[in-house]
């Protein structure tokens, strides 16, 4: 059942022709994906997840991302990992089921059509969860 609830595709935030990050969401969480530069070792990354703010970058350098989150998260359940050279940041939604138009305030917002599709997909997920219980 979990496979049916997973997002079908990731959204991309592109700036000046470069993908800054990709992201998707479920009822419970928002996942951000950032490609790791090959010259940077995993131990060099620094990530701080606060209830309303995300800071991410390389230790000793200005942050790559230093933004307010679009909605509050549960910090004790949010975390980051590196999988297959992709930095994966998992943000646990404080308000389950809330549709996020972007993980970050003001950056990478979904257009109205994509936001409507995302809202309907999350409503279907909620329905499927309720029916399976």
TrEMBL record:
<dbReference type="GO" id="GO:0006457">
    <property type="term" value="P:protein folding"/>
</dbReference>
<dbReference type="GO" id="GO:0005737">
    <property type="term" value="C:cytoplasm"/>
</dbReference>
<dbReference type="InterPro" id="IPR008978">
    <property type="entry name" value="HSP20-like_chaperone"/>
</dbReference>
<dbReference type="InterPro" id="IPR007052">
    <property type="entry name" value="CS_dom"/>
</dbReference>
<feature type="domain" description="CS">
    <location>
        <begin position="16"/>
        <end position="104"/>
    </location>
</feature>
<dbReference type="Pfam" id="PF04969">
    <property type="entry name" value="CS"/>
</dbReference>
<dbReference type="GO" id="GO:0006950">
    <property type="term" value="P:response to stress"/>
</dbReference>
<dbReference type="InterPro" id="IPR037898">
    <property type="entry name" value="NudC_fam"/>
</dbReference>
<protein>
    <recommendedName>
        <fullName>CS domain-containing protein</fullName>
    </recommendedName>
</protein>
<dbReference type="GO" id="GO:0051082">
    <property type="term" value="F:unfolded protein binding"/>
</dbReference>
């Amino acid at each position: 059942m979990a496979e049916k609830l997973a997002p079908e595709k990731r959204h991309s935030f592109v700036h000046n022709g470069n993908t800054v990050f990709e992201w998707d969401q479920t009822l419970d969480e928002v996942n951000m994906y950032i490609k790791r530069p090959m010259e940077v070792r995993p131990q060099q990354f620094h990530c701080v997840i606060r209830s309303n703010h995300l800071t991410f970058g390389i230790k000793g350098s200005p942050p790559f991302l230093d933004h307010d989150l679009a909605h509050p998260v549960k910090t004790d359940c949010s975390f980051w990992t590196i999988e297959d050279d992709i930095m994966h940041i998992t943000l646990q939604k404080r308000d389950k089921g809330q549709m996020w138009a972007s993980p970050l305030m003001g950056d990478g917002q979904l257009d109205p059509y994509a936001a409507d599709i995302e809202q309907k997909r999350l409503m279907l997920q909620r329905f499927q969860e309720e029916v399976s219980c």
